[in-house]
Amino acid sequence: MKETDIIIVGAGPTGLFAVFEAGLLKLKCHLIDTLPQPGGQLAELYPKKPIFDIPGYPSVGAGELIDNLMEQIKQFQPEFTLSETAETIDKNEDGTFVVTTNKGTKIKGKAVAIAGGLGTFEPRKPELNNLAEYEEKGLEYFVRNPEQYAGKRVVIAGGGDSALDWSIYLANIAKSVTLVHRRNEFRGALDSVEKVKVLKDAGKINLMTPCEVVEIKGNGKVESLVLEKEGIQQEIETDYFIPLFGLTPKLGPIANWGLEIEKNAIKVNNALDYQTNIEGIYAIGDINTYPGKLKLILCGFHEATLMCQSIYNRLNPGKKYVLKYTTVAGVDGFDGSRKEAEKAVVKSIE
To answer: Is 327 among the annotated ligand-binding positions?
Structure first.
């Protein structure tokens, strides 16, 4: 059985950053993820999608962000169990935990951090006939590789951020982009809505509202779509149809771990350390919920930081901890010692 300090369930951006914060405190981590590679949704669903709300990066690709996080934590040598799902959790009498995966792998840890993002998820699909017939044959639910749409005709359906963002992005590389939404109003960021309108006026996006896709046609692959607007139907040719209606999240086996659940998310104590109703088990990132919760990557980073401080104090009762800044102590200077912190400050002054 493998042993570590913190078992992290989920290797998305929040889970990866938790490794860094734990490493500063000399705590070792072992990450478990159902996906075959670290990165969570960013790596699996939209690695080329630009992200605009990471501090210090006006724009950073989702895949690039994961690469940077992996480089940042490499020094702390985390262990990974990938392509396996955390199935069960058992708490021992000494307060440690054993997490067992669906393939029988057992990892023992002193604390558990659940950073599973949306949990397991599947795309919300349009209610159209013969969807399965066209899936991965021109019908795509995610944009994994934008370059495959270069010079192609693309129809995107949806009214949220993903539909808006990908319409904007693909307008620069696709032969044509048509954005279809059943309402005139969009749910996405106002800035994105304005960009779509500008691209529409420039003739780079064909905006169809209020409008819906009512039929897919093609011989073995998507060749055309039937659109309906205000009771009038028209058929347009296309190479790809990408309905982006969001994801249906499911907690999966985590729902059976005895945790307090609210609206498919894990309730935590945000006033202190993002601990769940079970002492020693924490939840950070999109998978948790509390009053005022925002599902943003940068919020997950904040939660991971406070969680690691709590775990350190829990595992080292009575040991005085002094917060030190990496600009003063560097990465190797974090051990929770007041004496070492004072030395680092004196050295920096000298």
So the answer is: yes
